[in-house]
Amino acid sequence: MNTCPEEIVHLMHEYLDEELSYEKEKELKQHLQSCEACRTHFQELKRTIAFVQSTSHIAAPSGFTQNVMSRLPKEKKKAGMQRWFHNNPFFAAAAVFLILMGGSLLTAWNSDDKFAFTNNDNVVVEGHTVVVPEGEVVKGDMVVRNGDLRVEGQVDGDVTVINGERYLAGAGSITGQIEEVDQAFEWLWYNIKSAFNELGDMFESDDNNE
Amino acid sequence: MELIVKKRIKQVLKGDQNAFGEIVELYKDKVFHVCYRMLGNRHEAEDISQEAFIRAYTNIHTFDIDRKFSTWLYRIATNLCIDRIRKKKPDYFLDAEVAGTEGLTMYSQIQTDEPLPEEEVESMELQSSIQKEISLLPDKYRTVIVLKYIEELSLKEISEILDLPLGTVKTRIHRGREALRKQLRTL
Ligand SMILES: [Zn+2]
Q: Strand A159-162 to strand A137-139: parallel, antiparallel, or no bridges (unpaired)?
């Protein structure tokens, strides 16, 4: 039925893609005016496009996003926790405070005014002072509460002195962090920090288990 | 929109999964719609478009942040659709819910409440027929027709999505239009 050159149909498509030069467009139009078969063909193509474009847009089903999110591989819990703390700093602080209150930490503070320290074979006690003698090495963290600490030897770990003082003799050394806690608030803060560290460790080890 | 998306992608890369939820919200309709027109049925479209987002999430580290995110996402979605079409048994369309029947089901559901105006019914039936004809196109033509006429993407973008030379995309669009023209002639 169509005896016209292929070239004409090609021109139609180029026209539809808006890639026809002015001269070629004139050529196409002239042909269409004189040839009914091509005119029909061209009309059908335009109609086809109009049909396809008339299909309405349909939206994703409800609950789509939740379904996707529930199918995602689990994110590292630490990121989730960090984001939560980041988004809810007040609640985060309040929550930690409540946890600590629940642990009756403040009561512990009030009642706990006894001299206490991390027991270690290498330390000597003089009254309310814990002494790490010269030449002795304490491996591990040391906590002294309601007393002083004098380090003449070496502590391979963190040192925390609560309600006391720490002396570091000339030859003494402490490899870890040193912290002195003198007041109730600081004591609380110190516990909050260690609680955080423990939480962090907990999540860290959770991740490793996965 | 791309700017917000890039910000969210950076958050996702840092491990913030919730940021990805916002990306899904922004693109879900577009991706679902492409899949629906490609596959011709809602159920499969939902399945594949969700899969597309999950793939995007697990491969987000391979996305080049300097490029357009939607192009990358469409590529994932269209590839999944093509895979699904090719895996499908040829007789699938004969017994399963075809796009054509869906509009009618919807129509009969609505009809019990309140009769629809005649023209609306007609347009629904027409839409179903058009979708059915699109579904009958070979997948390589179907993809370009859907991207060009339903998503209204440029030929250049389509060539990027499909990772095909521009010339190939043009040829496929021409052939797709011709095939559809013959199919839709009777409408
Ligand atoms: Zn002609």
A: unpaired
- Per-residue pLDDT tens over the stretch B101-145: 444 444 333 334 455 667 777 778 888 889 999 999 999 999 999
Helix (H, G, I), strand (E, B) or coil at B53: helix
Q: How far is the CA of A13 from the centre of ligand 1 (A)?
A: 14
CA distance A8 to chain B (A): 13
Torsion over CA: B94, B95, B99, B104 (sign):
positive
Q: pTM of the prediction?
A: 0.59
> Tokens 């042909």 identify what position?
A31
Handedness of CA B163, B164, B166, B169 (dihedral sign): negative
* Phi–psi pair at B47, nearest 5 degrees: -60, -50
Short-list A103, A50, A100, CA closest to B123: A50
- For tokens 């700017």, the residue is B3
Set of chain B residues whose Cβ sits within 8 Å of the Cβ of A58: 29, 32-33, 36
Q: Which residue has the tokens 């669009």?
A: B173
What ipTM did this prediction achieve? 0.79
Among the listed residues A108, A154, A107, A162, the one whose alpha carbon sits nearest the alpha carbon of residue A135: A154
The DSSP bridge partners found for residue A180 are: A161
Q: What confidence tens digit (pLDDT) does each residue in A68-96 have? A: 999 998 765 556 666 666 676 667 677 66
**Contact with chain B for residue A59, Cβ under 8 A:** yes
